[in-house]
Design brief:
By secondary structure, the chain is an alpha/beta fold. The protein is 53% helix and 15% strand. The protein has a six-stranded parallel beta sheet, sandwiched between helices. Strands 3-4 form a two-stranded antiparallel sheet.
């Protein structure tokens, strides 16, 4: 039944596109019924193939999501960067950090690993995230910074290979946290996703939802080929030392 729906949608899309192409005189509708059916089947198969990575992301994280109140007690929380505004965490990033601070205050996590982009001197997500958390009561000795979390896969694989994280609560927006869980699981981290609280479903939110559909394709390739992060570097003991701190 689902295949029939996809085929019908592909048929409609093909016909709509064909009208514009015909008007420009660039191509003609396949001349016979067999050709038309073949074209529709190819389009339907392409649509299904394109959606496979998104389906994988969705199902891989389906039983790993928790509310903040249900988050398991775990040594490490990982907060993914989400942009700065005039050097301060963007509203979306601030809500991720607020959620992390609440989990720390509740005793559900012991250390917060902030991972983000510091590829240029004037843009430093991890330090801005650290300062925000300290202002909200998280001791600096309990915050570890990853300055080379350039994308979700880099953040996940570096958390495992550089910082030695084996289990973590991952904090991000609801539209992103599933992909984070799927990729961190592939990187070897037993992960639980917690969606940041307080978000409004505004234009930025819906843009994030659409972007995730496209980003799932890259996530599938990362999981398949497991590339090294953009910057690997030596092993760091920041998480280990933070856990040992009194």
């Amino acid at each position: 039944m689902r295949a029939g729906v996809w085929a019908a949608a592909a048929r409609r899309t093909w016909r709509q596109g064909l009208r514009g192409v015909r008007a420009a005189g660039r191509v003609a509708w396949p001349p016979d019924t067999v050709g038309r059916r073949r074209t529709v089947r190819v389009a339907a198969a392409a649509c299904a193939l394109a959606l496979l990575p998104y389906a994988w992301v969705w199902t891989a994280a389906d039983d790993r999501l928790r509310s903040p109140a249900e988050a398991p007690r775990t040594d490490v929380a990982v907060v993914f960067g989400a942009g700065l505004w005039d050097g301060e965490p963007s509203p979306y990033l601030a809500r991720r950090l607020d959620t992390a601070a609440a989990l720390y205050a509740d005793g559900r996590v012991r250390v917060v690993l902030v991972t983000g982009d510091n590829s240029r001197e004037e843009y430093d997500e991890p330090d801005a995230m650290r300062a925000y958390l300290v202002e909200r009561g998280v001791p600096g000795s309990r915050i570890v910074s990853d300055y080379a979390g350039f994308d979700t896969w880099d953040s996940c694989t570096r958390a495992k290979r550089i910082f030695g994280v084996d289990e973590a609560v991952l904090i991000s927006q609801g539209f992103h946290v599933r992909r984070a869980v799927a990729l961190c699981e592939e990187a070897g981290i037993a992960s639980y996703g917690v969606a940041a609280t307080g978000d409004r479903h505004d234009a930025v939110w819906y843009y994030g939802v659409v972007r995730e559909t496209l980003a799932a394709g890259k996530a599938g390739l990362d999981a398949l080929f497991e590339p090294d992060p953009h910057f690997l570097g030596p092993r760091e003991k920041g998480v280990e030392q933070a856990l040992a701190a009194e």
